[in-house]
Amino acid sequence: MQRGVHDVLPTATHDEASRESFVVALKSHVATEVTGGNRLFFDTVAAPEFKRRHGYAPRNRSDVRRAMNPVPYYQMSSSLKRTTQELMWDYVGSSVERQLPALLDRAKQVTASPKGSLHLDADLPLPRYLTAVDIHCMPGNYTTDLVDGDVFAGALYDRSVYLFAMGGLGAYNDDVGRTLITALKEKFPRFHPRRILDLGCAVGHSTLPYCDAFPGSEVHAVELGAPMLRYAHARAEALGKHVHFSQQNAERTNYPDGHFDLIVSHILFHETSSKAVPRILKECHRLLAPGGITLHCEGPPWNRMSPYEASILDWDTHYNAEPYIGQVHDEDPKHLMTAAGFSPSQYLDLSVPSVTMSRYFPQLFSEGNNGIDGTWWYFGASK
Amino acid sequence: MAKAKKKAAKAKGGSKKPTASATPPAQPIKRIRTAKGRRPYFFDDPNIDKLLAMIMALTGEVSVIRERLDTHERLAEKKQAPTSKNIEAYKPSESVDQWRVQWRAEYIARILRIVTDELERIKMQEKDDDYDKIVDEVSK
Ligand SMILES: C[S@@+](CC[C@H](N)C(=O)[O-])C[C@H]1O[C@@H](n2cnc3c(N)ncnc32)[C@H](O)[C@@H]1O
After folding, report:
1. How far apart are CA A194 and CA B61, in angstroms?
2. Maximum separation of any 2 CA atoms in chain A, in Å
3. How many whole angstroms separate alpha carbon B87 and alpha carbon B80?
4. Among A145, A203, A223, A372, which residue has the most ligand 1 atoms within 8 Å of its CB, making it the best to mutate?
5. For residue A36, what pLDDT band results from cuts at 50, 70 and 90?
6. Going edge to edge, which strands form the sheet with A218-223?
7. Minimum distance, in Å, between the CA of residue B134 and any CA atom of chain A
C-alpha cells in the first residue's frame, strides 16, 4: 500500500526513507518472529517457575510481568522492542528537524484562506498525564513548541504513526475513524448528525473521514497539543477537508449543552487517567443532544482479557511510557457509561473488523502489536 | 532566523542547489532528543541493552548503505551517474520496492538469527542435557 501524501507531510531524502523502511522491517520482524515466542517461554518456563516460588499460578498482569522479567528471551525481545521504538522517533525526528523551516512555511501557505478553523488557547492548563512523561517515548510529547507557530510534534506524529502501524491504519492513517463510521452506519442507517465532535484528535487522522461520511455536517475536533492542532489544521486544509479544531481539554470543553449529535474518540482514553475518563464521559453526556450517539474506540475490549493478554498491553505501561494503558483495560465500560448519566439500556458495545488492517496485514497484529488483531472495539451509548 | 539561514545557504552553495543528504546545514531549530519517562533496561547489566541499541542502530545504517548501493546499481543500469542529485531523484519501481522489502526482511533475520534460534530449540523440545547424553552414548 502507498502512503497518502499531502502538502504538509514531511518528505524524506533517499537515506531517510531507507531508514524508515528499515525500522518498519525491524518492527515487523520483532512483531512476527520474536515477541510471539514469549508465550511459549511463559507456558513452559516462567509460569511453572512462578508457581513453584509463590505457590500459585500468575493471577494478573503484574504476576505475569514478574514471572517474565528474569527470562532471557523476554529481556531480549523487550530490549529489541524498546530500541525499535527509539529508532523510529530518532529517524523521523531528525528528518522533520532538517526540514522544519520549510514545513512551517508550507503550513502557513495552505492555511492562508482556510475553510475550516483553528482556535488555540495558550493559557489552557495541561493535565499532569500529558506533562509528566513523553507518551510512547515520543520526545517532546504532543505539547512542546520548539518555535513560535510550531508544527514539529504533528509532523513527527503523522510520519511515525504510519511506520508504527506498518501502514496498517491505511494510506492516511484513518482506519480507526473509518471503521467506526462503517459500524455506525450499519447499526444506525438513518442517523445523520448535524454536528460532530472528535475528542483528542491528534493530527486529525480519524477526524477527516467524518467530513466525507456525513456531507453537510459540521465537524469539530478538540486536542490539547498546540503543535498537533496547527499541523492538523494545515493537513486538513491541504486535503480539502473542513474541520474546526480547538485547543481544549476533553474533560471540560466550552461548547454549550446538547451541542453535538455525534461525539467520538479514537484511542484516546488509554493516554489519559482513571480520573479523566469518567470526566470525559460526563462531558460527552452534557454535550450530547437528545437522540445523539457517543462512541469511543480502543484496541482490545476492556475488562475481558486473560492475565497474559493483559500483560502484553501492560508492557507499554512500564516500558513504553504509556502509564495508564495497563489500568485502563481493567475499567468497566458499561459502569462508566451509566455513571456518566447514560441509561444502561442505551449502552453500546461493538467489536468491528478494521476496514484496512484485516485486509492488508492480518498476520502482523498479534502480540507484537499490542494485541491489536485487526478488530477495533467501540463502547458508548445513545441518549 | 530561518530566513537568514536560507540566505546563508544560498550564498555558500552558489548556483548549485545543495541536496539535503549531501550538505547537512547547522540545525536552525533543535528538536528534543530524549523522551521524558524512565528508560527501561532489561538485562542484568544495562550496558547489554545499550550495546544492543548500538548494534541495531548500526544494522540500520548498513541497511541504508546497502540500499544506496542498490540505487547506484539501478542508476548504472540506466546509464546514469550516481550523483547525489540522481540518487535523490531516483524513484524505485514497484518491483524494486518489493525486492528491497524482501532483502531487508532476510537481512534482519540474518542479524537476529540467534534470537529465534533459542525459540526453535524450545519448540523442538530439546534440553541442554540431551546433548550430554548423546556424547556419553556415542562414547560407550
Ligand atoms: C493517541 S492520540 C489520538 C489519536 C487520534 N484520535 C487518531 O485517531 O488519530 C491521543 C491524543 O489525545 C490528546 N489528549 C490527551 N488527553 C486529552 C484531553 N483530556 N483532551 C483533549 N485531548 C487530549 C493527546 O494530546 C494526543 O494527541
Report:
1. 51
2. 68
3. 10
4. A223
5. confident
6. A117-119, A243-247, A218-223, A195-199, A260-266, A288-298, A375-382, A347-353
7. 24
Q: How many Cβ atoms sit within 10 Å of the Cβ of residue A100?
A: 24
Residue A48 cell numbers, joined: 511453572
**What is the distance between the alpha carbons of residues B85 and A101, in angstroms, rounded to a whole number?**
22
Q: Which three cell numbers stand for residue A237?
A: 486544509
CA distance B67 to B63: 6
- pLDDT tens column, A53-93: 999 999 999 999 999 999 999 999 999 999 999 999 999 99
Look-up of cell digits 493535565: A127
Residue type, A363: Q
Strands annotated E in chain A: 117-119, 195-199, 218-223, 243-247, 260-266, 288-298, 347-353, 375-382
Q: Does the beta carbon of B7 lie under 8 angstroms from any beta carbon of chain A?
A: no
Q: Is the CB of residue A4 less than 8 Å from the CB of residue A172? A: yes
3-state secondary structure of A106: helix
Nearest-CA distance A287 → chain B (Å): 34
Nearest CA to B31 among A92, A321, A14, A21?
A92
Tell me the C-alpha distance between A371 and A310, whole Å.
9
Site residues for ligand 1, CB cut-off 6 Å: A 127, 130, 142, 176, 199-202, 205-206, 222-225, 228, 249-251, 266-268, 271-272, 276
Q: Tell me the whole-structure pTM to 2 decimals.
A: 0.92
Which residue on chain B is closest to A14 by alpha carbon?
Answer: B88
Contacts across the A-B interface (CB distance below 8 Å):
159
Pairing of strands A195-199, A218-223: parallel
What b/e sequence results for A67-80 when a residue is b if at least 16 CB atoms lie within 10 Å of its CB, and e otherwise?
A: bbeebebbbbbbbb
| Beta-carbon separation of A93 and B33 below 8 A | yes
Q: State residue B74's pLDDT score.
A: 98
Which 29-68 residues of chain B touch chain A by CB within 8 A?
A: 29-38, 40-43, 48-49, 52-53, 56-57, 59-60, 63-64, 67-68
The arithmetic mean of pLDDT across residues A111-119, rounded, is 98
Q: In which band, very low, low, confident or very high, does the pLDDT at B8 lie, cut at 50, 70 and 90?
A: very low
Identify the structural domains of chain A with CATH numbers, from first to last: 154-382 (3.40.50.150)
Of residues A298 and A138, more confidently modeled: A138
Asked if A202 contacts A118 with a C-beta cutoff of 8 angstroms, the reply is: no
Question: A32 and chain B: CB distance < 8 Å anywhere?
Answer: no
Closest partner CB to B35 (pick from A16, A97, A134): A134
